[in-house]
Each structure stands twice: as C-alpha cells, then as structure tokens.
Design goal:
One of its GO terms (molecular function) is bis(5'-nucleosyl)-tetraphosphatase (symmetrical) activity. InterPro entries: ApaH, Calcineurin-like_PHP, Metallo-depent_PP-like. This protein is an alpha/beta fold. It starts with a strand and ends in a 6-residue tail after the last strand. The mean pLDDT is 96.
Length: 273
C-alpha cells in the first residue's frame, strides 16, 4: 500500500486522472490525500467531487477556501463567481448529496501511521498541535451541525488576525477558518496577513514572512502538508511540504508518494481565466 499526497485540484479532473495513472495509483490498496480546494477555476469540479467521494475511505481531503465558498454559494449566502465554474455542481441531480459530503470533511487531518498532518493553508504559527486539533474540531462540529448556515454566512472577513485563547464565537471560528484555509504570510509578531499572494522572494512583501518560517513556542512534531499557495511552486523543508504547484494557472499538478518521497508531475494547460 502506498500513500499519495496531491495539491489543489481546483476542478482539473483530467489532469488528476493522468497523474494517478502515471503513478499507477491503485484505489483498491493505495491511499490518496488531497490538500483541499477540490473545486473552482478548472473545468470539471463536479467530476472531481464525485471521484473523491466515491473513493470512500481510500481518500482523505481537507477543506479549502474554495470548498467553503461553494458551500456558502450553494446555500444562497455568497455569490458563485462565474470564473469558478461550479454551476454544474449546483445543477447536478446529486448536488445535495455531494454538498452534504463536502461539509463533513475536516479542516485538519493527521495520518494514523505516518508523521504528517494536512491542512489546506497550513497551521497557525501561534498554535501548538493540541490547539490546532481543538480549534479544527470546534469548527468542524459547527459546520456539521444544524448551525452550519450561520457559520457559512459569518465566516467571511480578515479579522481577527491574531490568536488569543479568549477568542470565542464567530471571532474564534473565523480566525480558525482563515488560518487553516487562507493563510500565507504573517507579520513577525504572528498576525495573519490576508492580502499578499506573492512569492516570499518578491521585494514587495516587506516585513511579511511565510507562516512556516515563524518560530513556534512548541514544535508540532509532524510535517505539515499544505496547498493553497501556488507561488511557492512546491516548497519543501524539514517542517513542511507545499503541494500546490499552480495546475489551474498552466503550471503543473504534483503528486507525492510519502513512502519514498517520489514526486510525479503533470504539466497542465491554462484553465483559469
């Protein structure tokens, strides 16, 4: 059995299929871990959702910002952007089943045997792993409860940008969602920046630092697998592996086999407008 990890699909279903064929992925015995943003921008978000759902327990996916936005748009709480190409999902006969499945996916997933944790954007540098688990579980419980529409309606916004244990209610939930699904840069004091999407090497980033370069008071003890930040183009160091290599923008999709570190790369056409 092999464990495969893949970056943001964003509806680029044909590219995912080509990549899995290249790696000889066997759904009868292998595992597929997906770093979120299954939908949006690419041409086949509906097919992607159906495929991952049908893999059952052979697949583990975390929620990304585009996945959450789809849930909000499907419930009339946000506008579905035409460039996101999710209308086929909203028109599908199995839409309710797919959306119900999607809202029950986690923000944070940890492999039971291998020493890695997965979150779409990463894990806040202000958190230890115990805090990250607790905050993920609280938001997941709300998203899976009868209060999920309230959460989807009120999750939008860039604040609060700093974690403190006294946060509660929607402020606590919003910080957690932003950290797990939208985070890229932080200020040196740990505050989240929700605007800059540049490469860390870009001269206009100023004092901002990638979230994974800020010191932690307590090491996580696991490698963090994340997507979301295409400008990193597959950054890897001793603490993190970034798997979003910009498939939807005409770069490539990357699949990593955990056991031996083998990488499989599929060059992609431009899908996003």
């Amino acid at each position: 059995m092999s464990t495969y990890l893949v970056g943001d699909i964003q509806g680029c279903f044909d590219d995912l299929c080509d990549l899995l064929e290249q790696a000889e992925f066997n759904p009868q015995q292998d595992e597929l871990w997906l770093s979120g943003d299954l939908v949006a921008r690419g041409p086949k978000s509906l097919e992607t959702l159906r495929f991952v759902k049908e893999l059952g327990d052979r697949a583990t996916t975390v929620l990304g910002n585009h996945d959450l936005h789809l849930l909000a748009a499907a419930n009339g709480l946000a506008k579905a952007k035409s460039r996101d190409k999710v209308q086929p999902i909203l028109d599908a006969p199995d839409r309710d089943e797919l959306l119900e499945w999607l809202r029950r996916q986690p923000l944070l997933a940890e492999h039971p045997q291998h020493p890695f944790a997965m979150a779409h954007a990463g894990i806040s540098p202000q958190w230890d792993l115990t805090t990250a688990r607790q905050q993920a579980k609280e938001v997941e419980a709300c998203l899976q409860s009868d209060d999920y529409l309230w959460l989807l309606e009120n999750m939008y916004g860039n604040g609060p940008d700093y974690w403190t244990p006294v946060l509660s209610g929607i402020e606590q939930y919003r910080y957690t969602i932003n950290a797990f699904t939208r985070m890229r840069f932080c200020y040196p004091d740990g505050r989240l920046d929700m605007d800059c999407k540049l490469s860390p090497e870009h001269p206009e980033t100023g004092p901002l630092q990638p979230w994974f370069e800020l010191p932690r008071q307590q090491p996580l003890g696991k490698k963090v697998i994340f997507g979301h930040w295409a400008a990193l183009m597959g950054h890897e160091d001793q603490h993190v592996i970034g798997l979003d290599t910009g498939c939807v923008w005409g770069n490539s999709m990357t699949l990593l086999r955990w056991e031996d570190g083998a990488r499989f790369v599929k060059p992609c056409p431009v899908h996003a407008e």
